[in-house]
Amino acid sequence: MALAFDEYGRPFIILKEQEQKTRLSGLEAQKANVSAGRAVSRILRTSLGPKGMDKMLQSPDGDVTITNDGATILEQMDVDNQIAKLMVELSRSQDYEIGDGTTGVVVMAGALLEQAEQLLERGIHPIRIAEGYEMASRIAVEHLERIAQKFDFGPTNIEPLVQTCMTTLSSKIVNRCKRALAEISVKAVLSVADLERKDVNLDLIKVEGKVGGKLEDTELVYGITVDKDMSHPQMPKQIEDAKIAILTCPFEPPKPKTKHKVDIDTVEKFQTLRQQEQKYFDDMVQKCKDVGATLVICQWGFDDEANHLLMHQNLPAVRWVGGVELELIAIATGGRIVPRFQELTPEKLGRAGLVREKSFGTTKDKMLYIEHCANSRAVTIFIRGGNKMMIEETKRSIHDALCVARNLIRNNFIVYGGGAAEISCSIAVEAAADKYPGVEQYAIRAFADALDAVPVALAENSGLQPIEMLSAVKSQQIKENNPHFGIDCNDVGTNDMCEQNVFETLIGKQQQILLATQVVKMILKIDDVISPSDY
């Protein structure tokens, strides 16, 4: 490469042997695309399962994240290759739609690409491979519906939901507290769920964390926690049967919208101005008192004079509360957000049985708990942990558990985990391959082999002999015609996932297979990669 200048003095670069450089197309491009997708899959493969390893990711500004959540790992990786970005999108789609299984879907897509590469080298056309994969995915999804079992649960019988959430949390860094966290997640989801409509609004569940304490101190608050304290240290720290005024207007005199200037040339004028300002403050506080408010929560700040006046009028106040938190407080307490003092009425006040300020450790950190609300359909999961990274990873783990509980409420069918569902589907797809007379049967068999990649990865990550374990479990499933047998990752002593209570949601597993197949089909159909420099 050399730098040269044209007759106008503009620089340009001369690339040596540029005419010998060619753009990849056809079979070479397809193989390159498959290799890029497999590279991403190999990164996540070691993070699969309860014994999967964690990844440490460092951002450009030095922040460190430790996680084994597939979506988070790929989200924070700096990926340049366009095919690798498709794998990132694949994991993100699984996260948005299901919330769990983000690692497994990428591992499955990588296995499908690996099998496709072998078929390409045998001269099978990529379109025929893609069609075979599509047929096989339909067979697998239908087989999953046949082996799925209905899970009956209710507000009084939450054990099935807890067991399924525990399976999700088993592969996380928080697995030593998986029982407690699973119970918290299930109770939070049931608090905001509409069981008649089978609908769950996860926006009503606030997940808050504070460094300090231990993971076992994590609690479910039937109400809202706000990372604020009372605006004045002498205000009461506990208010029972609180009537809450939720304001988005500041405690300060009104300001003109245009530029203005006030000339004060005498003491009398200054006194008049000061009295007028004080009257504004008095009127604002009096309006709150007149409607019966015993606590004011304000989106904006207020100066020391207003704060002093509120304290003397015995009206506790909280300032600088965020907009999202205000909305949750309004939902929980049944109040209305008031934009102007003139619109404040007794009907617009929120109601809570107890509002208390809580201190943590020796750091003088304080938080406000709003509990026993009029409408308990807004809850907070309050996480404690030794450091910020632990809290962030716990938040991600609880998000997965919440999504699994939500999915079970929407569709209460489950399949068994530990690779049991994949092995059962692999056997079914392999058996169905002979019914297809065309070249597609090779792709269908390859799909069956790719399904085995998940149990193989689980066995590898657990320190077991992968081929030996897979063949033993597969023969056991065929011999006993029982789809419950999987990889004993935790070395319990039985391969029966029903006995181990290892469950996964049916819709989550079906979505994994469908999404992985769609993305692999897309990658196989790309035979040319054209960049802006090519035209």
Automatic annotation (TrEMBL):
Q: Which UniProt keywords apply?
A: Acetylation, ATP-binding, Chaperone, Cytoplasm, Cytoskeleton, Hydrolase, Isopeptide bond, Nucleotide-binding, Phosphoprotein, Ubl conjugation
Family the entry assigns: Belongs to the TCP-1 chaperonin family.
Q: What is this protein called?
A: T-complex protein 1 subunit epsilon
Compartments where located:
Cytoplasm, Cytoskeleton, Microtubule organizing center, Centrosome
**Physiological role:** Molecular chaperone; assists the folding of proteins upon ATP hydrolysis. Known to play a role, in vitro, in the folding of actin and tubulin. Component of the chaperonin-containing T-complex (TRiC), a molecular chaperone complex that assists the folding of actin, tubulin and other proteins upon ATP hydrolysis. The TRiC complex mediates the folding of WRAP53/TCAB1, thereby regulating telomere maintenance. As part of the TRiC complex may play a role in the assembly of BBSome, a complex involved in ciliogenesis regulating transports vesicles to the cilia.
**Is Cytoplasm included in the keywords of this UniProt record?**
yes
Asked if the record carries the keyword Membrane, the reply is no
Principal place where this protein is found? cytoplasm
User: Where does this protein come from, organism-wise?
Assistant: Gossypium stocksii
Q: Which reaction does it catalyse?
A: ATP + H2O = ADP + phosphate + H(+)
Gene Ontology terms, MF aspect: ATP binding; ATP hydrolysis activity; ATP-dependent protein folding chaperone; unfolded protein binding
NCBIfam families assigned: chap_CCT_epsi, thermosome_alpha, thermosome_beta
Question: Record's GO cellular component, any one?
Answer: chaperonin-containing T-complex
